[in-house]
């Protein structure tokens, strides 16, 4: 549609509809005779004749005379015998299709230029900026770009971890042999910590002195002492605490039985016996 309307960039309607006038126009006001025109040569005269739609064949003299005869005249006033016959020939149609394809390619190029214009401008500025830098500055920039690209690749890399292994210092799963060496394949559950699961014996042993286990023991009203090491069940902790309280009660000093007195005969008796003898008046 643009081709028919002559709106293709660089292909106006008069150019696309009059393909026979494909030559280059020549200003004849600078020439006073056909001999001067002949000095331009066959190709230039042919181009000028094509631009006017005239016959372009013949010798150098015939072409020069034919072209000079049009000086100061309009195309309508020229003899019809001077014009090329059958302008809409088969060859012209073939040229039309070829030029139409060329115009289509040119239109695509114009579109790409418009789309990529900003990127092309930024690229041009970047090249100028790099050219203004010293060799050391360019090397530093290249090293920074390489390091940035490597870090981006590491960030975008999908970590393959089908066994759900813990991550090491480099953000990658630790080796499986190291995983088993530290016993991380064994899970320990602690009911006192709210059924929290610990991986490996090291983390399990360490958790007894951490805040989560201490908070659970405090909620049970039990002191978090060394007596309760490796105790993870609430029932076991409560029963052990009851035994410890009985043991402490039995170990506590009892003045009635352990406090010693001496009677009038010099015998050592406990407080309870001494009080009984005193009440009976035997002292």
Automatic annotation (TrEMBL):
Domain of life per record: Eukaryota
Main location: nucleus
Stretches the record annotates as Disordered: 125-156
InterPro entries: Matrin/U1-C_Znf_C2H2 (IPR000690), RNA_Proc_DNA_Dmg_Regulator (IPR051421), SDE2/SF3A3_SAP (IPR025086), SF3a60/Prp9_C (IPR024598)
GO cellular component: spliceosomal complex
One Pfam family this sequence matches: SDE2_2C
UniProt feature, compositional bias: Acidic residues: 137-156
Keywords in alphabetical order: Metal-binding, mRNA processing, mRNA splicing, Nucleus, Zinc, Zinc-finger
Domain Matrin-type as annotated: residue spans: 188-219
Compositional bias per record (Basic and acidic residues), positions renumbered to this chain: 125-136
Keyword DNA-binding in record: no
Keyword Translocase: no
GO molecular function list: RNA binding; zinc ion binding
Localization (cell): Nucleus
GO biological process, one term: mRNA splicing, via spliceosome
Protein's name in the database: Splicing factor 3a subunit 3-like protein
Biological source species: Equus caballus (Horse)
Lineage: Eukaryota, Metazoa, Chordata, Craniata, Vertebrata
Gene: SF3A3
């Amino acid at each position: 549609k643009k081709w028919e309307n002559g709106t293709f960039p660089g292909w106006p309607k008069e150019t696309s509809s009059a393909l026979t006038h494909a030559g280059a126009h020549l200003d004849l006001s600078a020439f006073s005779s056909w001999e001067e025109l002949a000095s331009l040569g066959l190709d230039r005269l042919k181009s000028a004749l094509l631009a006017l739609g005239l016959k372009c064949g013949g010798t150098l003299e015939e072409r020069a005379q034919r072209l000079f005869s049009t000086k100061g005249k309009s195309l309508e006033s020229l003899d019809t015998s001077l014009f090329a016959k059958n302008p809409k020939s088969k060859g012209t149609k073939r040229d039309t299709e070829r030029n139409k394809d060329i115009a289509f390619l040119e239109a695509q190029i114009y579109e790409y230029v418009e789309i990529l214009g900003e990127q092309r401008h930024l690229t041009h500025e970047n090249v100028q900026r790099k050219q203004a830098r010293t060799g050391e500055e360019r090397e530093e920039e290249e090293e920074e770009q390489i390091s940035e690209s490597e870090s981006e690749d590491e960030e975008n890399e999908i970590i393959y971890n089908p066994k759900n292994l813990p991550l090491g210092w480099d953000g990658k799963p630790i080796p499986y042999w190291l995983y088993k060496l530290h016993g991380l394949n064994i899970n320990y559950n602690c009911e006192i910590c709210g059924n929290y699961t610990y991986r490996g014996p090291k983390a399990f042993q360490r958790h007894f002195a951490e805040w989560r286990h201490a908070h659970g023991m405090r909620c049970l009203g039990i002191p978090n002492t060394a007596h309760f090491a490796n105790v993870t069940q609430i029932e076991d902790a409560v029963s052990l605490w009851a035994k410890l309280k009985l043991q402490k009660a039995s170990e506590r000093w009892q003045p009635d039985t352990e406090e010693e007195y001496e009677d009038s005969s010099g015998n050592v008796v406990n407080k309870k016996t001494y009080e009984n003898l005193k009440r009976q008046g035997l002292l």
